[in-house]
Specification:
By secondary structure, this protein is an alpha+beta fold. Helices cover 38% and strands 16% of the residues. The chain folds into 5 domains: 1-117 and 316-384, Sulfite Reductase Hemoprotein, domain 2 (Alpha-Beta Complex); 143-276, Sulfite Reductase Hemoprotein, domain 1 (2-Layer Sandwich), CATH 3.30.413; 395-551, Sulfite Reductase Hemoprotein, domain 1 (2-Layer Sandwich); 574-683; 707-777, Translation Initiation Factor IF3, CATH 3.30.110.
Length: 779
């Protein structure tokens, strides 16, 4: 089934990104400016220069067989010959060149798929259990809620300019297979007094200061899903930390406000949305039954192997005589050729025949019993290692240092080494059962190590002054409604010893298997202590001269180093642009402090310091100057004349504006003072881009003159038009009126909604020729 409807302004936004890329190639915009726009489009730069990853939204892991075919064709044409399944049930295309990004995005749009929101400070892919709708134990199917909420939220402009990423999950039962209890918003299906509804969790998540979600609402009826999600998004939009990306997720807002104030602000938004009226989500219950036309039932080629395969991977659905089949996909990678064949093979089984899982596999659904032989024969002919013990499909890894700019260790290569070790171990791995082995290449939780039975997070350790790759070892995660807890640390291990450690632990478990029903029970009772003892035994490694292997990561032919590790792109946006100039200011001041600098270099650097200081904060006022003259003019108008920056710096700015750099030599201390004042002003900035410094009388007069003003924002793209609107509204008193002019398309579709989300009233919005007039009353 198709997971969502494309937003109406997607074509316009793709066009805007395309134009920005043209400007970048002409040298008219910086790489940082481009990043701020491409990352929210799900386009991330990889470690290899000029190569990008494109992430495709697949709500609830849904994709039709024909869409899977289409993605395989697009990836073959514009990327490399593999697709990658993510731990948020999406598909990724890797190694896409800059010139191929827009063509790939346009082709995806033709088959009903979007990359918008695949990265950045946006509403990310909404997830749910891959067996939603077919699990005999679920309360009810949550798929239609995921699809409808996705369609609604990705059509709202403020979903693309949040303080940080925003993750939503649904689960169909208290088992919480969708991880609702560790999401920014989590909905768990319940039925109360015969009424369908949800228990709601909020402010959970993994990464910096991971936190289990807090129970926000014990029960809401199903029509309340959208107003609850909208209210929490509004709270995050208004009060989230936009300055410090390391403390910007919703869980940090809960911590900073405290439970009482957070809930108070949520209920204010919730009541306002319900009082204002809202359109219920349009739930689509189609695509739940099997559709088979064409294929003839087949006998399996090998009866014994077929029986083993069914035991490992086929499960009866709640619908009579229908089955699901798990297809293990090693570390989530499958070739485009095989993906194309799989899509074509599944077409007769209908649009709801396949979903992506959170452990990076495919789950086939709605397969009639008589066609299990067809599935087996197809997989045997098409996929390698399709009938290994199920544990091989439960080993999950993030991208790691091979492609991720944040990666420390080569986690995928470690996972492959673990698989090879297990394959050779001689252990009866079918008896090991359902075990989650998760590996992250750094302390971030992209590999979900905190949710593992046994998890690993990459780090660097030293031996005799030399770095070597290593992992923290964790164990014992529990996930469930009201009982979720993260895995606990048990020790650390060198990367090269990770496969041996896991294999030995499984050997210990299998030797005790008669005592425990599951591996999870073993870990809770004896396994953690066994693991601690193993970590202690593996802790010491040999010196470099004795065994150099420990100082090379898995699959690496160079010594382990952190030199290539760079800042990641997850929080791209206005914050990145501000930090770019802040770094420029600090770097220039450092160069000026060096001894032996010649006069010409000093003049140039002083001019650059005034330039960066004047440019840095303009973006907070929605200003993107086209040249130096405009830059200095806007800085004077918005910061000096308003009293935010001292008027005594006017002559310094005039010297730089007139390129009188020699005069700056005699004012070096004051140039540094200007830079310091801008840095301090930035430090005082709140989450809504307001500054704590009290404005001068000139600022107050400007506020009075701005009352009932008309502002022309035609030609200004999203989200800068909204930033400009916020700035103008900040100058008004409650009840005063502002009229703005906006272009048709994305601006008129997004800005009024974002304004209303902040509590202001839209008095009218009227088409006036080629633009719109929007009249706003300040709250």
């Amino acid at each position: 089934m198709q997971g969502y409807s494309l937003p109406p302004d997607l074509d316009r936004e793709i066009g805007e990104l395309e134009e920005l890329m043209h400007k970048y190639k002409r040298g008219e915009v910086s790489a940082t400016e481009l990043k701020a726009h491409r990352v929210p489009f799900g386009v991330y730069e990889q470690r290899e220069a000029d190569t990008y990853m494109v992430r495709i939204r697949c709500a609830a892991g849904t994709i039709t067989p024909s869409q899977l075919e289409g993605v395989a064709v697009i990836a073959s044409q514009y990327g490399v010959y593999d697709l990658h399944i993510t731990s948020r049930q999406e598909l990724q295309i890797h190694y896409v060149k800059l010139d191929n990004i827009i063509p790939a995005i346009k082709e995806l749009r033709k088959i009903g798929l979007a990359t918008r929101g695949g990265g950045g400070n946006t509403i990310r892919n909404i997830v749910s259990p891959e067996d939603a709708g077919i699990n005999p134990q679920e309360i009810f199917d949550v798929t239609s809620y995921v699809s409808a909420l996705t369609t609604r939220l990705i059509a709202e402009g403020d979903s693309w300019s949040l303080p940080r990423k925003f993750k939503i999950a649904f689960s169909g039962s208290a088992e919480d297979k969708g991880y609702a209890t560790i999401s920014d918003i989590g909905f768990i299906a319940v039925i109360k007094d015969g009424v369908k509804g949800f228990r709601v969790y909020a402010a959970g998540g993994m990464g910096a200061k991971s936190s289990v979600g807090k129970l926000l609402l014990d029960f809401i009826e199903e029509p309340e899903v959208y107003p609850v999600a909208k209210a929490l998004k509004n709270v995050f939009y208004k009060y989230g930390n936009r300055k410090n990306k390391h403390a910007a997720r919703l869980r940090f807002l809960w911590q900073s406000l405290g439970e009482e104030e957070f809930k108070e602000k949520f209920h204010e938004e919730y009541a306002r949305i319900k009082h204002g009226g809202f359109e219920p989500l349009g739930l689509d219950e189609a695509g739940k039954t099997a559709v088979v036309s064409g294929p003839v039932p087949e006998e399996a080629g090998d009866a014994g192997d077929f029986a083993l395969w069914k035991k490992r991977f086929a499960r009866a659905q709640r619908q009579a005589d229908l089955f699901s089949v798990l297809i293990p996909v090693e570390l989530g990678f499958i070739s485009c050729e095989r993906s194309l064949k799989l899509g074509r093979f599944l077409e007769p089984f209908g649009d709801d025949a396949i979903r992506m899982t959170r452990d990076q596999n495919f789950l086939l659904r709605n397969i009639p019993r008589q066609y299990l032989g067809n599935i087996y024969n197809f997989l045997k002919d098409t996929l390698q290692d399709f009938n290994r013990p199920a544990i091989f499909g439960r080993i999950l890894s993030c991208a790691g240092a091979s492609t991720c700019q944040l990666g420390i260790c080569l986690s995928r290569q470690a996972a492959r080494a673990l698989m090879e070790n297990l394959q050779k171990s001689g252990l009866d791995l079918d008896k090991a059962g359902d075990i989650k082995l998760n590996i992250s290449g750094c302390p971030n939780s992209c590999g979900q190590h905190l949710l593992a039975d046994v998890g690993f997070s990459g780090k660097a350790l030293r031996k005799d002054g030399r770095l070597y790759p290593a992992y923290n070892v964790l164990a014992g995660a529990i996930v469930g409604d009201g009982r979720t807890k993260f895995a606990e640390e048990a020790g650390e291990v060198a990367a090269k010893d990770l496969p041996a450690l896991v294999t030995e632990l499984l050997g210990v478990y299998l030797s005790k298997a008669g005592k425990f029903k599951t591996f999870q029970e073993y870990i809770a009772q004896e396994g953690k202590e066994d693991l601690r003892r193993l970590c202690a035994r593996y802790h010491e490694i040999r010196g470099f001269d004795e065994n150099k292997n420990y100082y090379f990561d898995w699959g690496a032919d160079t010594l382990f180093s952190l030199a290539e590790r760079r800042a990641g792109e997850c929080s791209a946006g206005l914050f990145d642009l501000l930090e770019m100039d802040l770094a420029n200011i600090k770097g220039t001041r450092k160069k000026l402090s060096e001894t032996g600098i010649d006069e010409e270099s000093k003049k140039r650097l002083l001019g650059e310091l005034v330039f960066y200081s004047s440019r840095m904060l303009l973006i907070t006022r929605g200003i993107e100057p086209k040249g130096e003259e405009e830059l200095y003019e806007e800085f004077l108008r918005n910061f000096v004349e308003t009293g935010l920056v001292a008027a005594s710096f006017k002559d310094i700015i005039a010297m730089a504006r007139n390129k009188d750099y020699r005069a700056l030599l005699f004012e070096e201390n004051r140039v540094h003072s200007l830079a310091q004042e801008v840095e301090l002003l930035y430090e005082s900035m709140d989450n809504a881009f307001n500054f704590k410094n009290s404005a001068s009388g000139a600022e107050k007069k400007r506020d009075e003159r701005a009352a009932a003003a008309v502002k022309d924002f035609r030609g200004v793209t999203c989200p800068l038009n909204f930033v400009k609107t916020k700035v103008e509204l900040s100058k008004l008193k409650p009840g005063e009126i502002l009229e703005i002019w906006l272009d048709d398309g994305a601006p008129i579709e997004n800005v009024p909604g974002s304004v209303m989300a902040e509590g202001h009233r839209i008095i009218s919005q009227t088409k006036a020729g080629d633009h719109w007039s929007v009249v706003i009353e300040k709250k």
